[in-house]
Amino acid sequence: MTKHLDPRVIKTRSSLKTALISLMQQYKIENISVQKITETAHITRGTFYLHYKDKRDFISRAMTEILDDFFDAVIIDGTTMLPAEYSFLDGKDVDILSLNTAFSYIESEAQMFSVLLNTQENGLFEHQLNERLTHLLEEFHNLLNPVFMDISVPVNIQIAFVVSAYVGLIKNWLSEGMIYTPHYMTSSVKKMIALVQTDGQDRVTFTNFFHTEPEFAGQPQTTSWQTARRL
User: Fold this and answer.
1) pLDDT (tens digit, 9 = 90+) per residue, 111-143?
2) Domain HTH tetR-type spans what residues (predicted)?
3) Is the pTM above the cut of 0.70?
4) How do the domains of the chain map onto residue ranges?
């Protein structure tokens, strides 16, 4: 996390991360040296080693910071957005993911996410993203376990399926040049979620973790896929 850090430290780390993303468009991670990173960032090697032990430490922490910033922006308290009020929560917050915010955030950092998710063969960033989502879904399940719907499928399989679906959707959206707006992507996911959500019951499934915002939860969307494409 970058909170409470000296602004100069934040600027240095930001410059190094920007340099890394730029270099990852041209080289595999294993072919990116500390010298290339510092030269691209216009920072001395001495300054680099004041912040990081080595290249591996830098890349690991850079990925962590990128994911911290992303999840700080998209995770919200979903206690009031669940199918019912559950007394057993006893005032505890229930973290859920705002889909429209997530798509909008990724759109605003499209180059970075495209590089990290679609151009690196080692899949380091995707692996960390999957782990973060998996952990959040496990916490969501543990907190709401008393009212979680039993579909006779092991929880770890359900989570793996959901994580793969959402990360895969993001990767596809990026690889196709984000031809659909974040708003349309969110409404499309809402329609697909509606196919598997229970109707008229107070049970919870993993689809409840992904929030589609009030603006998408009212009247059915009438926008056609053709008009949702960017001009």
Assistant:
1) 999 999 987 665 889 999 999 999 999 999 999
2) 10-70
3) yes
4) 1-52, 54-228
